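Quick one: sequence plus zinc ion SMILES, need structure tokens.
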Amino acid sequence: MIPLYPLRFTPLFRRYLWGGRRLAEVLGKPIGVGIDYAESWEVSDHEHGQSVVDNGPLVGQTLGSLAREHAAELYGRHGAQPRFPLLFKYLDCQRVLSVQVHPDDAAAAKLTPPDLGKTEAWLILDAAPGAYAFAGLKRGFDRPAIERELQRGTLELCLNRIELKPDDCLLIRPGVIHALGPGYLAAEIQQSSDVTYRLFDFNRLGADGKPRPLHIEQGLAVSDFTAGPQIPAPPEVTADPRCQRLAACDKFVFDRWRLATGQTAKVGGDERFYILSVTRGSISLAPDLTVAEPLERGQTVLVPAGWGAVEIIAREASEVLQMYLP
Ligand SMILES: [Zn+2]
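Reply:
Sure thing.
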């Protein structure tokens, strides 16, 4: 069996109602000309999108098949998982997304087929003038108020509207009612779940001219009506001042390295896998016998637990996201 090595994947591009061109313009994604795209799934082992390796001897294999066959090598101290537990993506939100809510693990496990719950965290990379999001409820709104405004088609009146700026990071726990956009380019780390209950779509029509389906009963059943205004937490310092902790919870840790030209940083070597993605600049990894090319802005690599430590070498002033299990 071929041992695992730092894996790069072909991005999975998604078109939704609300996409744009920044995945190409800012992150260099090969999305062709003219067509708007909403998401680039960078690392995913989900039935709605399987990452496929595009480097080295394992080229063409899916993350799902590798995760099953190489569980010990991939997961290290965390042991075999039902599927790769994290999903990392970039989003270009030109228009506001639907108002939505996600279940927690316990509620999602009861679905057919069972899924994971969804905790997610957004890091804002770019914000157009006037960009905003909704996160949590305004103070004083409870379930009856939500139901009333849903019936009137004015749910946004109940929601905490927040103007996120570049470098803001917001952790969204299960049950928190939220909507990202318009105007944001964001990186999102989340549990590998695709269970989204759409509560409200701003009375819009889908691409087929019909309203997109809503899931009000399921959504209200998992909503946390005590979740008031959500605001970004300032990053925490870590043992290395060049590495900031953007978000941490029981599902993932989300850090960001800021490195000057020529600086190096050691990642891993602690029996964990690491997802690394470059949001500014350009890096090399060492030792890396299979990825000779540098990792450029918008590109992502998964370092398996069994590979041990890697060294990031900043080829220019760089920012690198680092995501792993706690
Ligand atoms: Zn969401």
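The first helix runs from residue 22 to 25. Residues 100, 102, 120, 178 surround zinc ion (CB under 6 Å).
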